[in-house]
Every structure is written in structure tokens, then in C-alpha cells.
UniProtKB/TrEMBL annotation:
InterPro entries: ATL_DNA_repair, MethylDNA_cys_MeTrfase_DNA-bd, MethylDNA_cys_MeTrfase_DNAb, WH-like_DNA-bd_sf. Residues 6-79 form the Methylated-DNA-[protein]-cysteine S-methyltransferase DNA binding domain. This is MGMT family protein. PANTHER family: 6-O-METHYLGUANINE DNA METHYLTRANSFERASE, ALKYLTRANSFERASE-LIKE PROTEIN 1. The lineage of its organism: Bacteria, Bacillati, Actinomycetota, Actinomycetes, Pseudonocardiales. Keywords: DNA damage. The keyword DNA damage applies. It comes from the Bacteria.
Length: 99
DNA sequence: CAGGTGACCCCAG
DNA sequence: CCTGGGGCCACCT
């Protein structure tokens, strides 16, 4: 079922450790997907119950509509944000965090 | 069937 | 810093 892929993406996001983050591309790779866009779409429609705030763009920025909420939550976990972007170098989860 | 649209990514100017 | 162009994928007109 197509539901399986959808599910793997959610699993990858759910497994990102607190205080750490990952890019949409990272999640896609971790879930065995080729499209980062798909990850964004999944989170948009059913990310409510997931730690979606730990997923960022490749440069550490975020889409304007979720920026406030995302930054607030991340700060709460001690994640550093500079110039509107998360400092990926310090908080990016190591690839294979799911396996 | 043909475009348009994103919580996207990457590279060249 | 910004713009363009190519890829990507599911969904809606």
C-alpha cells in the first residue's frame, strides 16, 4: 500500500532525538524516499502528532508559515538559532539515526 | 491529458 | 544577496 511509504516517513521523523534536527532531505533518505518534497507534504497533512519541528530545510531555515512555532519549540529543547536559521552543524542528527 | 503548486534540493551566474 | 533552471512527487484544476 502507499500507506507504507507514508508510514516510513513518519517513523523517521518520530525517531529524531530531542534536541537534534534533520533536513527534509535527510528524512527522505532515512525513509528510503527520493523526494524531499514528499516529506514536507506528509508533515503538512499529518504531522500534528509528530516532532515535525525537528525537520528543517537544507540550510536550516523554515517555511514562513511554521517559522514561529518551530523556533519556539526548538528553543525549548535548547537548539541554537542564528540569523533565522538553526545551526545545523551543532544539532543535525547523524545519518542512520533510524536504523 | 496539461498545467500549476508546494512545510524541498542543488548548481551556476 | 538574488534569479533561473533542472529534479523531485502527490494532488488539484
Amino acid at each position: 500500500m502507499d500507506e507504507a511509504r507514508h508510514e516510513r516517513i513518519r517513523a523517521a521523523v518520530a525517531a529524531i532525538p530531542e534536541g537534534q534536527v534533520a533536513t527534509y532531505g535527510d528524512v527522505a533518505a532515512e525513509a528510503g524516499e527520493r523526494s524531499a518534497r514528499l516529506v514536507g507534504r506528509v508533515l503538512r497533512e499529518d504531522g500534528a502528532d509528530l516532532p515535525w519541528h525537528r525537520v528543517l530545510r537544507a540550510d536550516g531555515s523554515s517555511a514562513p508559515q511554521i517559522l514561529d512555532e518551530q523556533h519556539a519549540r526548538l528553543r525549548g529543547e535548547g537548539v541554537e538559532i542564528r540569523d533565522g536559521k538553526v545551526v545545523l552543524a551543532h544539532h543535525r542528527a547523524a545519518s542512520g539515526w533510524l536504523s
